[in-house]
């Protein structure tokens, strides 16, 4: 089991979205990335309700051990600059992994990343052109209901606290948390701000996949609505 996006024919699994597509004879599988797990569940929730024509994800991500602590050589030049001292523009594989997790999504999703000097908790800004016009109140109600009663309730959380900041989400077991106060909607354009604990929250998603393939996945109550 890989804890990074799989290439080639390796399936990218986001628990709650496509884990039931796993075949018994799969020998190698990927749990994609923390950012993929953060954006795919809300992307599916939005696509199911409104349709998605195209989108872009910009993740403001905690620095990782692939970066240098001090300016030094790195095969990716920007990642060679000191991680604790800089915001660093870099690439993300999350957007390309979306197609594997949501093969029925007929939309182009692009993505990029900015690494920032915090050790944990990131935020993905998901900018979507929807298939129909809506308004902020409707989208908030939809995402809140998804977080409470849908099959994605273990993946998506929802917060309306007006003073929420990144450290509030350390230890969250969800793949992503919708920030209600930051949501922007105008016509067929929606911008979602999705917090995620890129360490523990992602690890919980990996464990869920392990439980599923080993046949010991635990039920949750109340049971999600079909």
Describe the structure.
Strands 2-3-1-4-7-6-5 form a seven-stranded mixed β-sheet. By secondary structure, the chain is α/β, with parallel strands linked by helices. Helices cover 24% and strands 25% of the residues. The protein contains four helices and seven strands, in the order αββαββαβββα. The protein has helices at 34-50, 94-101, 136-149, 200-214, and strands spanning 52-62, 88-90, 108-116, 122-134, 156-159, 176-179, 184-196. The mean pLDDT is 93. The radius of gyration is 17 Å and the shape is globular. Helix 1 (34-50) crosses helix 2. Residues 40-195 form the Glyceraldehyde 3-phosphate dehydrogenase catalytic domain. GO terms for molecular function: oxidoreductase activity, acting on the aldehyde or oxo group of donors, NAD or NADP as acceptor. Pfam families: Gp_dh_C.
Give me a quick take on this structure.
This protein is α/β, with parallel strands linked by helices and 226 residues long. Helix content is 24%, strand content 25%.
Relevant terms:
single chain, 226 residues, alpha/beta, 7-stranded mixed sheet, 7 strands, globular
Q: What overall form do the CA principal axes indicate?
A: globular
N-C termini distance: 29 Å
Mean pLDDT, to the nearest integer, reads 93
- Considering DSSP H and I runs of 4 or more, what fraction of the residues is helical? 10-25%
Number of strands: 7
Instruction: Give the structural class.
Output: alpha/beta
Low-confidence stretches: none
Number of helices: 4
Major sheet strand order = 2-3-1-4-7-6-5
Beta-strand residue fraction? 25-35%
List the secondary-structure elements in sequence, H or E. HEEHEEHEEEH
């Amino acid at each position: 089991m890989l804890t990074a996006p799989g290439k080639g024919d390796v399936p990218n699994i986001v628990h709650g979205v496509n884990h039931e597509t796993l075949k018994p004879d799969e020998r190698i599988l990927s749990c994609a990335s923390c950012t993929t797990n953060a954006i795919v569940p809300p992307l599916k929730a939005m696509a199911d309700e409104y349709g998605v024509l195209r989108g872009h994800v910009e993740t403001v991500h905690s620095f990782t051990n692939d970066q240098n602590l001090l300016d030094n050589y790195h095969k990716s030049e920007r990642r060679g600059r000191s991680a604790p001292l800089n915001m660093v523009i870099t690439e993300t594989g999350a957007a390309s992994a979306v197609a594997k997790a949501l093969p029925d999504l007929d939309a182009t999703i692009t993505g990029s990343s900015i690494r920032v000097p915090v050790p944990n908790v990131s935020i993905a800004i998901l900018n979507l052109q929807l298939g129909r016009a809506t308004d902020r109140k409707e989208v908030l109600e939809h995402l809140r209901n998804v977080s409470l009663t849908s099959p994605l309730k273990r993946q998506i959380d929802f917060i309306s606290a007006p003073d929420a900041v990144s450290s509030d989400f350390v230890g969250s077991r969800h793949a992503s948390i919708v920030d209600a106060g930051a949501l922007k909607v105008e016509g067929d354009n929606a911008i979602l701000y999705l917090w995620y604990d890129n360490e523990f929250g992602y690890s919980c998603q990996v464990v869920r996949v392990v439980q599923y393939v080993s046949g010991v996945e635990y039920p949750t109550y109340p049971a999600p609505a079909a």
